[in-house]
From TrEMBL, chains A, B:
PROSITE patterns for the chain: GST_CTER, GST_NTER
Major subcellular location class: cytoplasm
Pfam families: GST_C, GST_N
Single GO MF annotation: glutathione transferase activity
CDD domains per record: GST_C_Tau, GST_N_Tau
Subcellular location, record wording: Cytoplasm, Cytosol
Keywords: Cytoplasm, Detoxification, Transferase
Protein name: glutathione transferase
Organism: Brassica carinata (Ethiopian mustard)
UniProt catalytic activity: RX + glutathione = an S-substituted glutathione + a halide anion + H(+)
CC terms in the record's Gene Ontology section: cytosol
Ligase keyword on record: no
The keyword Cytoplasm is annotated on this UniProt entry: yes
Ranges where the GST C-terminal domain occurs: 88-212
Length: 220, 220
């Protein structure tokens, strides 16, 4: 009970996926609790009063918020299996830089791709393509963002892959054709049990977003 | 030469102040290079091609970008003197959470306080007061954000203190009267040699911002 790990999350959150993948990588058993985002639980509001957002990791009754911080926490508390951050300080700084880049640059465009139409969606599309171009170039010919080993930046970005099809369909553009290296990287990540277990089916994400656009936003 | 540490920075940047304080805390000798932000150096653009922003820390010829990442890097490379992050993983996660909170919540309002007038500035004022209220409550009766020891969150926020007078004057409100605990905390921080050495004079910041508003933006 004292070692209890609980995750408050929502199935299609690419941020929650990071924490789930990290827990799987470490072989940590945890209780998954799906939140209703339109009616957040009292526990979520109590555990993350500042941002009131999922994912919230609760370990021994204490909350850890923000997915990249959770992943680093998991790596520090369970250091033995599959290190997530490199041991070299410079490589660690680089991993943190690119995770931070992903957080800073995707939030705006990904929200707009999902919720907007017309010009706003077009702008978001261009911004998102720019992010993909930068990440494609950073990946280069490496197997993973950190080199030969799956790590923090891979965990930070792989969840977005399960949304690519949704972005492509709702905003009518092609990611797959433009970035074959990123797609090959995603397929390499998916060979890991942790990623395969956590990533939802792309069609399920698409259906939920299509339903949301149609029923809540009243757009197609 | 191989151990050379260079910092590309701008004197009134509260982000650059973080890195300078961390270097002072560790007793690391470094070469400070002031950037002209309206005409950035080729070295800055080469070392931070993604964000093209100061501060950039260059260690052994390699760049580390983003101030909170730089502070963590400095703590990891020079671990002996004055630890900046706590050793306990949960406390480390909390320190990262609050540093991240400061970065997420101050960027918008602080830019608007400095550059806007009227309604936009009023909104920024309310948002900034909300941040201060949250930080005041998180500080509570502790000496520093992490407890008894000066650390990451103190380093993340103390630079803003040198801007308080500027915000008060250009946006016509009072911070000092509303948050005595935060002011007492800032004064405690200023007793540290690192902070006292790095923080610029509040009147100098105010003059530079007043000049910028008058000469560049054409507002008072």
């Amino acid at each position: 009970m004292a070692e209890e790990v609980i995750l408050l999350d929502y199935w299609s959150s690419m941020f929650g996926m990071r924490t789930r993948i990290a827990l799987e990588e470490k072989g940590v058993k945890y209780e998954y609790r799906e939140e209703d985002l339109s009616n957040k639980s009292p526990l979520l509001l109590e555990m993350n009063p500042i941002h009131m957002k999922i994912p919230v990791l609760i370990h021994k009754g204490k909350p850890i918020c923000e997915s990249i911080i959770q992943v680093q926490y998991i790596d520090e508390v369970w250091p033995d299996a599959n290190p997530i951050l490199p041991s070299d300080p410079y490589q660690r700084a680089q991993a943190r830089f690119w995770s931070d880049y992903i957080d800073k640059k995707t939030a705006g465009p990904c929200k707009a791709l999902q919720r907007e139409t017309g010009e706003k969606q077009e702008t978001a599309k261009m911004e998102f393509m720019e992010v993909l171009k930068t990440l494609d170039s950073e990946l280069g010919d490496k197997s993973f963002f950190g080199g030969n080993v799956f790590g923090l930046v891979d965990i930070a970005f792989i969840g977005f892959y399960s949304w690519f099809r949704t972005y492509e369909v709702v905003a009518n553009f092609s990611i797959v054709a433009e970035f074959p290296k990123l797609i090959a990287w995603a397929e390499r990540c998916l060979k890991r049990e942790s990623v395969a277990k956590v990533l939802p089916d792309s069609d399920k994400v698409l259906k939920s977003v299509s339903d949301y656009r149609k029923n809540i936003l009243g757009i197609n």
